[in-house]
Every structure is written in structure tokens, then in C-alpha cells.
Amino acid sequence: MEWKTYLLSEILKPLFLIVGIFLISISPLFMTVEGFVWPGFESIGSVFGQMMRLESLVYTNPTSGVERSLFPIIFKAFASSLRVLGLALIVSFFIALLGTIILWRAPKRVYKVCLSSSSFLQSIPDVVFVVASQMFLVWLYFQTGTTFIKLAGAGEEEAILAPALVLAILPTMYFLQSMLELVEEERKEPYYDLATSKGLTKSFILLKHILRNMFVRLAYQAKFLISIMVSNLLIVEYLFENLGMTSFLLTYSQPPVFFVTALLFFGPIYLFLKVIELSLYFFTRQEVSL
């Protein structure tokens, strides 16, 4: 791809993201109890004008009707969601990577059992894991009388570790299954037989060659994985009563509030995918488009 085409593509992608979020934000204006209606340019322009005056944005509690300023509380919600999401992603990735390295040297039968088990566990609905994990933590508290990790809180005392660990369950299984499948496919490549014929150990081939190729192929699934985590984040934040970004996206759905919240939420995710893309190109010289 020519650098001009690449540069144009990279400039247009965030613009499409912003336009897409804006269109979703104003979509409630088109829907009434009577069906689809045209709200008029004046209504759309009014929403756009409110988005441009960030300091005056307020969100309305749908139950009490009380209005509060969106800033700076939105930054606290952003920090809460980002910590839970980031910690869950790191934990799930490294547990799956460690499991892959260990299973690489395990007997073939154990390897296949783990692969089948992770595939089966992924078929269980997400909410079952979330509820079961929370019930287990509560049961553990009643049995031991000790709170190993914080289960709930508010503000600065908000629970972070417990929601992150619960959120990490499904991605860990997904990561593990994907890594095991990709490693198995790499084992069938001609370079693996060549390397073993030269006397290189299995561990050396895995760490030096297979993992590098696996990361590139795994990166293509990053969007799907993050979409799973974001959808589960809603359930986790609700059950642990965390005031996160999903609360603002779903509870306080006024168009300007939704636009600012979604942009603040999905903007960093987009940048994170770009960092993965550039890092893989820098270390492996292989182009990955995320």
C-alpha cells in the first residue's frame, strides 16, 4: 500500500468513527411512539450546538429527574471502566499465554482436553460466569469471614480487582483456545520440521518463532475480543454497582451526553488497536490492519 493511500485511510477512519457515533447519538430524535419521524435540521443543529459547549453539558437522572454537570464526573467513570477493562485484558492475556506455554510441553491428550474444555466453556452465557463468580466470592466471605478482595463500593472505594477478575474469565478462555489452535497450526508449518531436524528444542522454537507468528494472527481477533469485553463490562459494572462508562451510555441517554461518553470510551479503544497494529509492524515487519 502506498504511503499516501495509507495516510488518507488513517485520517478517514477516525472521522468515520466520530460521524458514526454522532449519527447513533441523534438516532433517538428520529423515533417516537408514532414511529419514524424527521426531527428537522433545527433539532439536529441544537444537539450539535450542545456538543460544542462541553462545559455546560448536564446529564439527567431518569428516575429522580435531577440534573448534574457531566464534567468532571465523567472522567471518574472513564477511569473506573478503563482500570477494570485494562486489568482484565492484561490478566486474561498473560494467563492464556502462560497456559499455552505450559500445555506446549504437555502430552497430546491433555492438550486436546484443554482445547475442548475451553471451547465448551465459551458456549456458556456470559452472565452465568459473572453471577457465579460473584456468588462464589460472597460464599468465600461467609465461609472464612475474610474479604480477600473488595466486592462493592462507591467513589474512591469502588471495587476494581473483583470486577476485573470476573471480566477476565471469558477472554481468558477465548485467548487460550485461540492460542492453542494457532500454535497447533504453526506446528504443521514446514519451518517447524526444519527447526526440529536441526536439533532445536521445542521450547526454543515456540518462544523464538511460533509465538511471534501467533501474535500477528491473534491480533486480527482483537476487535472481536474487545467487543466481547465491552459488552460484558455492562453486566459486571451493573452487578458490582460501579459507576462506569456503560452507566452513562445506557442510563443517561441524552444525545449530547451519549456522544461525549461514547467518544471518550471508544476513542482510546481505537488508539489501543492502532498501537497494536504499529507495534506488530515494528517488531515483525508484517502489516496488520485492525
Automatic annotation (TrEMBL):
It is found in: Cell membrane. Signal peptide: none annotated. It is a multi-pass membrane protein. Residues 98-254 form the ABC transmembrane type-1 domain. Its main location: membrane. The chain crosses the membrane at residues 12-31, 84-104, 124-142, 162-183, 218-240, 252-273. Pfam families: BPD_transp_1. Coiled coil: none annotated. The keyword Repeat does not apply. This is ABC transporter permease subunit. It comes from Halobacillus amylolyticus.
